[in-house]
Design brief:
Two copies of one chain form a homodimer. Chain A folds into three domains: 260 residues, Bira Bifunctional Protein, Domain 2 (BirA Bifunctional Protein, domain 2); 95 residues, Anticodon-binding domain (Rossmann fold); 70 residues, 2-Layer Sandwich (Translation Initiation Factor IF3). In chain A, 35% of the residues lie in helices and 27% in strands. Chain A is built from 14 helices and 27 strands. The longest helix of chain A is centred in the C-terminal third of the chain and has 26 residues. At the A-B interface, strand 2, helix 2, strand 3, strand 4 and helix 3 of A face strand 2, helix 2, strand 3, strand 4 and helix 3 of B.
Chain lengths: 491, 491
């Protein structure tokens, strides 16, 4: 089992795929493009869910649940939405199977054909705005600040574990407002919430920005994004927040009586993040030995492994570790004491290293005699032997340091790979060699954007929110530009 | 808005449907048989999820996530499973839509037909056991104790809010074991866990029992159930736990090497409960004025409503209530202070009564002067005016009392409606008039069971686990029987 992983520098993609499987995060399912999220991967998703859900509720949002299946005609109501989503969806056409004449196989019952086909939701704007029509009459019914945790299906042709899968899990916020200003503020608020949590909990430095028209969500007036940089120099869109204007309100005829007594269309937003965040975590932080998890996201923060030869030693060592476990758990730290005797310590060391557990604690008979205990940090591999009475103090300070260190390491990588480029030759060279976030001038047209994409596979990830005005010329056309945008190849 | 609900005694079904909608729990969606779970209803589901999820984890279970879409052929592998589930499922046959020639509508792209149809999961035994095949080689890989929170689709012909819907939310546990004994114990353990939580948190008294062969889960060797009794005398199956034997292991060829080095089929269980539990809560506890929620499940335990005429009064009253709110929230009580000035107190009283909030706290300028505050219990409608400094104490003891009172009231109802019947005429009479749990002798055959069902619509809900041996004769055939079973009409 513990042959080394492929090296990141040799084959980043194989390294990633093998790591995901070997760390017990996920695996490809037998259904094309779908994955099984295994318990350890799902435990990470539960941590992520809990953190975001708490933040959503603090900002006044509540959860609800809308149907999985959407009548085909609904998708059709918002013109650009149908363009973006109708192409890649699972279509339910029948509602019954029956036994075939051979008495062995089941076949689709042709008499059970739906009069209107149903689509497995690729996103829920259509079904939700069709419902909001009945919920909203007056300004007193606004704002509606809803979120939904759910599964969605998009028929992807090329899939990759967590990053792009036919079915994925996500949250989708859908809000409705009485004014344009309020909707715009909501979309921005959620962008900042995403970025702050990515930074503070997942140790992910992200660039906050606006998508170009071409990269916008199908049906949005404006899409905000948080973009993260992976260790192979490729970008990953980690979350998006859309200002929808009145487009879905118009498509589904959702109006309200405003404070002046006039009938007006409702203003909307939507925002989402998905299980691909787990992919972002992995590709930002991990090394050739496996996963490295930030303590605030790690399902297990401390693993304890006993070393012993005899049954007597085992009893003593495990009993001491149980005391330590209780001590740490009472401080709110998640601890796993792995005292299985079916696996050797060496196997356990490698396994938890691969699983990215932030701190490993080891205790053997010698330590016990000396009153000491050994700790190893996953991020730096630093080893320390301390007096056992300082265990909690040491764990506490290391968990804090690991979280900080991981963020600063990732931030420093991002800064090193944020390159100003002023001519197309250097641009192509940079994209083909090191990748990274390339800050370059662009003339603002979709035409230029698409040509650059075609020639280099680089897309405009965003127009950074904190970018400064700076006169320049488009790297491709030489036309004038007033600010740099961020190009990168992306997942 | 506040015309009275239909009375339970006049039309229980209309009362239920209107209550669900008016209390803001759920409504029918535009998709046939599907519902939208509204924020207040979903908040109840979140409470239920949290309680059960915590209990699952304490008993060693972990969560995971398996694909929504299941290849048609998988359903076919377990003979009785396909019988039970293939008849009522949503079938995905295509993966793309395209614009019609009219340039207006979208149609299914006939070139995007799947070579094998996919079924939207009606339950996940098939997809999970097909995966377990790859996860299990040795006894060291066992037990596997997994749970999944997910949505499932069953094409129901007659639907009812929460109780029977085309799509519903649930948890489904799927465990794999090395021995028959361990699997049997697991199925029983989960039954008791379900029953205990229903009693201790949801204030639902339930009968634990075994299903007859005819009522068994399609693919199980044995199905355990918890059965609750609704106020209209009908039964509701609130959760089931299945001992699967080796049936799914055989269907998907899942074997392991046991401790003696021999290859053996794996033993399995599955167990689930769904959003219909919310229906059980409503139909057990509520009255003609609306919902009544047990404090441990209530998303809002205490609602605070200010009374005032002038702005000055409002400021004083709301400020005092904010202090009270902080005080209670610091004790872990969920409080909502409704200080909206767009609605009158009378509207708010009726609204929160309909929503079943356990305690209402009201403060006006007169109270403020006297240093008193008014409280009303939702379950008994008892009103009390107390000195404001005793608020926390009073709320704390009432929450406890309400929880207890609701359970005992429901238990007493159940006991009153648990009837011993010894002849078929009385049986029919009882079923047609009062309903309830009817304890009667049955000859043990499916034939008799089906005839009774056909003639009276009563089914055998279960063979109670705590039933005693008692010689008797079948109410229908007069054949000998050794124990009574529970008959009822059921949802």
């Amino acid at each position: 089992m513990f042959s080394p992983l492929p090296k990141r520098s040799d084959n980043f993609s194989s390294w990633y795929n093998e790591l995901v499987v070997r760390a017990g995060l996920a695996e490809n399912a037998s259904v094309r493009g779908c994955i099984t999220i295994k318990p350890y991967g799902y435990a990470i998703w539960e941590k992520i869910q809990h953190i975001f859900d708490t933040a959503f509720k603090k900002t006044g949002h509540v959860n609800a649940y809308f149907p999985l299946l959407i009548p085909k005609s609904y998708l059709n109501k918002e013109a650009s939405h149908v363009e973006g989503f109708a192409k890649e969806c699972a279509v339910v056409t029948h509602y019954r199977l029956k036994m075939a004449e051979d008495g062995i196989n089941v076949i689709v019952d042709p008499t059970a054909k739906l009069t209107e086909e149903l689509i497995v939701r690729p996103t829920s704007e259509a079904i939700i705005w069709s419902t909001y029509k009945n919920w909203i009459q007056s300004h007193r019914d606004l704002p509606i600040l809803l979120n939904q945790w759910s599964n969605v299906v998009r028929w992807e042709m090329r899939t990759k574990l967590f990053l792009r899968t036919t079915e994925f899990l996500w949250q989708e916020g859908h809000t409705a407002h009485a004014t344009q200003h309020e909707a715009e503020q909501e979309a921005l608020q959620m962008l900042h919430l995403y970025g702050d949590i990515a930074r503070d909990y997942m140790a992910l430095p992200v660039i906050k920005g606006i998508k170009t028209q071409n990269e916008r969500f199908a049906g949005a007036e404006n899409t905000y994004t948080i973009e993260a940089l992976m260790q192979d120099g490729k970008a990953l869109q980690a979350g998006t927040s859309h200002y929808l204007g009145q487009r879905f309100a118009k498509a589904f005829d959702v109006t309200f009586t405003n404070r002046s007594g006039l009938r007006e269309y409702v203003w909307g937003t939507s925002w989402g993040l998905t299980t691909r965040l787990i992919g972002a975590l992995i590709m930002t932080h991990s090394d050739d030995d496996g996963l490295i998890l930030p303590p605030k996201i790690a399902p297990i923060q401390v693993v304890m492994i006993p070393i012993y030869k005899t049954d007597g030693e085992r009893a003593l060592v495990v009993s001491q570790l149980k005391n330590c476990e209780t001590l740490l758990m009472n401080q709110g730290i998640s601890v796993k004491l792995d005292d299985r005797d079916t696996y050797k310590p060496g196997y356990k060391f490698a396994d938890y290293e691969q699983k990215g557990v932030p701190i490993r604690v080891v205790l053997g008979p010698n330590d016990l005699q000396k009153g000491s205990i050994e700790l190893v940090r996953r991020d730096t591999k630093t080893k320390k032997i301390i007096a056992i009475e300082h265990l909690h103090e040491q764990v506490h300070s290391w968990l804090h340091e690991i979280q900080e260190n991981m963020y600063h390491r990732a931030l420093s990588f991002q800064k090193q790979h944020m390159i100003l480029v002023d001519d197309y030759a250097s641009f192509k060279e940079q994209i083909q060699t090191k990748g990274g976030f390339i800050l370059a001038h662009w003339d603002g047209t979709t035409e230029t954007e698409l040509k650059i994409k075609e020639e280099t596979k680089a897309t405009i990830r965003c127009i950074p929110l904190d970018g400064i005005e700076e006169a320049g010329t488009c790297i491709y056309t030489g036309k004038p530009s007033m600010r740099r945008v961020i190009f990168a190849q992306a997942y």
